[in-house]
Amino acid sequence: MNQLVISGGKRLEGSMEVHGAKNSVLPILAAAVLSGSVSIIHNCPRLTDVEATLEILRHLGCRVQREGHTVIVDSSTLDRCDIPEGLMREMRSSVIFMGALLARTGEARVCMPGGCELGPRPIDLHLSALRRLGAEIREMGGSLRCRGRGLHGGEIALTIPSVGATENAMLAACGAEGLTVIYNAAREPEIWDLQQFLNACGGRVSGAGSSTVVIQGGRALHTGEHRVISDRICAATYLSAAACAGGEVELTGVPREQLLPVTEVFVQAGCRVRTEAERVWLRSEGALKSVSPVRTAPYPGFPTDAQPPVLAALCRAKGSSVFVETMFENRYRYTMELARMGAQIRVEGRVAVVTGVPCLSAAAVEAPDLRGGAALTVAALAAQGESRITGLRHIDRGYEDIAARLRELGAEVRRTTDSVSP
Ligand code: UD1
Question: What is the pLDDT averaged over residues 244-259?
Answer without folding.
Answer: 96
